């Protein structure tokens, strides 16, 4: 039968099934296994036809699903005589149909009912997952058998000997077979589709992760080899290959689609509900998390870290090559950030290994590149959040702050002011750029930016003049009376910045002459803050110019924009219109994010001057009062800075007059040899705000992860036009 005839037969089979009750003869069903590609199936079965079948002929839909599962089970039971095209099309058919079943509450339960007239009481979902797991290690279908002999019983296969790639838990390098990669990808797509019940079920549904729970449970005999196969196939992937320019244009890369879907399945399987404080079970219910948490060999950590770093850095190498577009560029860096987060969260030893050497900087630079690159793209706000949360997690450890003192040699094309300095300077400049970029959707991250700076500030040894100016500029912007009185949380930003300055002065005075000089030169910023009028009349006068919330926002953005910016931003701020279409191609679709978790919930710390709030909600009609302003102003940690100015300003003025100095380099030399020993207040204890897992952040990560997966799976569009509940789909 020709390809065109096969397509016609398949479409007719679907139409017959939709219109005629109770079709179940084998000859009829044989017509359904002949499409050539997954796109054929998606094109031939429109979503409205699936819904019509579901709502008007539920028995026929159930029969269709049973027959597809039966075909998969038959192939699993007869691996020596497997009809690859038929079983792959059965898998594709389920991938197409399942989202429309999961969006309906009654049909979600259908998968967890026993098969009618079956010999087992196992629910259909369990049967499907077990058969798919077995087929992931089926000789000459998804793996190459060592002796080449036919295998009649998959239970005789030790899947641990057939891990897909060398790496964690395996030193064997299996042969590369493109057809096996394609078959694995099809199975993983169906698994990912089954796991997506969570995007349709209500948040209150306790069963929304049941597919994942069953698949990652100890009852799955392949859970370890599947976990290591997915992890290794991702971390071993090198899109550059042999490094020949433009080689990706000459040869089809059959590995990339497998790596991408493997990465998505891996991070989804590492999802779990937040652990109750009274639960001592650890990760024993989810064996993906269990095995990840137990990895401990340094060679395994090295393999994982180098793999993630290589792939995160790929866009940097691709864009900075001497030959334009000569290197293959991969686009799954958002999923990689989620994987890096999961590795650090579930395996403390891995995170400490990352922090132990300067390798942490190799992972930091691409993260800063990605979040800087996304700053003007409203569709990638989630990426910025994800990258900042990872840096917040790392900044809670002393080693991270210490490593930042390593000199930075520009490799990434990050759009910031040119400087000569350390990775700490790079961090400050990128954060300053993000704060002053004019994207109001990043305002919820200001607390995180500054908390990271606070965490690393006791260890910053030699800030550049550029970074010092940026820090003082932030104080200048955030300490304007209008901004301080506009929100009950705004003063906390000033508290955080002052804590950064105090930490540097108290613990790293030597070597930070650039920052000390900048504080002296811009001392009026601190004097004005110290002398801020907070009486009712002054507050009312300051706020009298408020017109509307949008005007306030614009005023704040204008205030924050860097005074050193000679030209307007290269891109319009998020939400602004532009006559120039965006450079990125593809559907104009974005997935909404959950509200950014409050910093107090992420770190377990509240502001320096606040009582622990009962709620993070700010009243709509909140107005600053004299009592409120006096409460926080009296606690401003200005003593160290004011004492520094009291001591050093007269000294600097004196040498300028006595020696006729006009060159700032001479003043810097004087400050380099100065000391404030015995003149400053007693050093305060270093306070590090470490990330703490909680329900709110767990929910945010789940929404972000599935939003990325939804948008990345467009060929075929697995979840397009279905009733997603977990996040909001925004289409232009």
From TrEMBL:
<feature type="region of interest" description="Disordered">
    <location>
        <begin position="544"/>
        <end position="592"/>
    </location>
</feature>
<dbReference type="Pfam" id="PF12722">
    <property type="entry name" value="Hid1"/>
</dbReference>
<dbReference type="InterPro" id="IPR026705">
    <property type="entry name" value="Hid-1/Ecm30"/>
</dbReference>
<feature type="compositionally biased region" description="Low complexity">
    <location>
        <begin position="572"/>
        <end position="592"/>
    </location>
</feature>
<protein>
    <recommendedName>
        <fullName>Protein CBR-HID-1</fullName>
    </recommendedName>
</protein>
